[in-house]
Amino acid sequence: MAPSAAQRIVIENCAIATVDADDTEYASGYLVVADNKIESIGAGSAPEGVTNVVRRIDATGHLVTPGLVNTHHHFYQWITRGLATDHNLFNWLVALYPTWARIDEQMGRVAAQGSLAMMARGGVTTAMDHHYVYPRNAGDLSGAIIGAASEMGVRFTLARGSMDRSKKDGGLPPDFAVETLEGALAGTEETVDRFHDASFGSMTQVAVAPCSPFSVSTELMKQGAELARRKGVRLHTHGSETVEEEQFCKELFGMGPTDYFESTGWLGQDVWMAHCVHMNDSDIAAFARTGTGVAHCPSSNARLAAGIARVPDMLKAGVPVGLGVDGTASNESGELHTELRNALLINRLGAHREAALNARQALRLGTYGGAQVLGRAAEIGSLEAGKLADFVLWKLDTLAHASIADPVTALVFGAAAPVTASFVNGKQIVEDNRLLTVDEDAIARDTRAEAQRLARIAAQD
Fold first, then answer.
1. According to the model, what pLDDT value does residue 3 have?
2. Contact, 162 vs 132, CB < 8 A?
3. What percent of the chain has pLDDT above 90?
4. Which of 200, 212, 300, 329 has the fewest CB atoms within 10 Å, i.e. is most exposed?
């Protein structure tokens, strides 16, 4: 039997920012999608003779970009937003750990749905979740999170986290909130075996992700790295987020965070760290030398008064950098497209001032940079023939952007642009800022119910 002909979608009459290696852009161009891949892209109208076209989109007034890629998040925090709003990181964690340790499977599922919905309706096509809270008898938390992403149609990486250093061992989490070393490793390996798909175009991948130096034993860091490399998956953790973390590492390990990570096998092309705010020249050089990636979370860093990450210096040194929402208990909006603007503006408050980042560098952080950090730059992150059809149509012809001539400047510097359409794997998941795959109103109702249930349970303890 002859193979069926590819079904094609043609998008025309739009500005396009490909974010390829040359930053190719078209003031008016086209995109042809064949099944789940980009077939062709260029200036002007689509070529004559394109066959089996099932849909044509006149995208006049729009900018088309690669889908946004989120590189750091904690979905469970969706149902604990607006708490501990005037705390630094360590005090914030101490205030919230007892509540987080009461999360169960149903709460985890609803929190994942809410977190994913806010990102997807705002242009995210690839998401990740660093989930490290696994209370005893909480149910199938990893399965609930991955199920929510699959239902929504978003490409997804679960960073299966863990904690085994509680208060009795000098850490911050309460004793009942952590796993044993053996339990954490076994649970992580089971999650990789059950869910990780390494194939081209995979919708679900898993990374090994002990939480942080101050909530994880050195043995879990070392054995976690060995497990990840034995299984051929990536590694993720928090690093160099605050001054207090640096002091903790020096007091406990006799070295700073980067040296500690290197001593435990946690630098390399298969590793990415969240935050990396307090990095000196030697730290940045070590990340560049080893190809270790960074998830930059500007809004969360500001919310917790952590500081300004040296993103311009990292990029100059060749460090892969993507953007992250971080958990919505430290970034209540939960939207990645706002991080494009915040990354640019906050970094201009640093040493490089107006030369820190420009609009196109910010867009690259949120697209190709994120794909690099997740190890998927050959598949997503730029609009090129042969890559997966993950892209967004941003509406820029409304009052909000009417007087900004350059579309990339409008997207990054301007108000949040409406998403007319978002595609993942060639399938549309958003239309006119509304999700097509799930019921947003039902998620909102469930969010309120589960947030109230968690608050009641936490208050009883």
1. 58
2. yes
3. 92
4. 200
What torsion do the CA atoms of 440, 444, 445, 451 make, to the nearest 10 degrees? Answer: 150
pLDDT (mean) for 386-402: 97
**pTM for the structure as a whole:** 0.97
Residue pointed to by tokens 């209540």: 332
Under a CB-based contact definition with an 8 Å cutoff, are residues 116 and 94 in contact? no
Cα–Cα separations (whole angstroms), residue 166 to 99, 174, 183, 215, 248:
15, 6, 15, 7, 14
Residue 121: partners with Cβ closer than 8 Å, 6 or more residues away: 419, 422, 430, 433, 434, 435, 440
The residue among 307, 453, 436, 428 whose CA lies nearest residue 9 is: 428
* C-alpha span between 15 and 391 (Å, rounded): 13
pLDDT tens, residue by residue, 325-347 = 999 999 999 999 999 999 999 99
pLDDT category of residue 136 using cuts at 50, 70 and 90:
confident
User: Cβ atoms within 10 A of the Cβ of 219, count?
Assistant: 12
What is the C-alpha to C-alpha distance for residues 66 and 382, in angstroms, rounded to an integer?
Answer: 5
Q: 238: helix, coil or strand?
A: strand
Helices 89-100 and 440-460: crossing angle in degrees, nearest 10, is 90
DSSP 262-296: HHTT--STTEEEEE--S--HHHHHHHHHHT-EEEE
List CB contacts of 238: < 8 A, sequence separation 6 or more.
211, 212, 213, 245, 273, 274, 275
pLDDT digits 0-9 by tens, 244-270: 888 989 998 999 999 999 999 999 999
Q: Give the max Cα distance, the chain.
A: 70
The CA distance from 47 to 394, in Å, is: 23
**What whole-number distance in Å separates Cα of residue 269 and Cα of residue 403?**
42
Mean pLDDT, the chain, rounded, equals 96
Report the alpha-carbon distance of residue 264 to residue 219 in Å, rounded. Answer: 8
C-alpha to C-alpha distance for 390 and 126, rounded to whole angstroms? 8
Question: Which amino acid, 417?
Answer: A
pLDDT at 107: 98
Predicted pLDDT at 134? 95
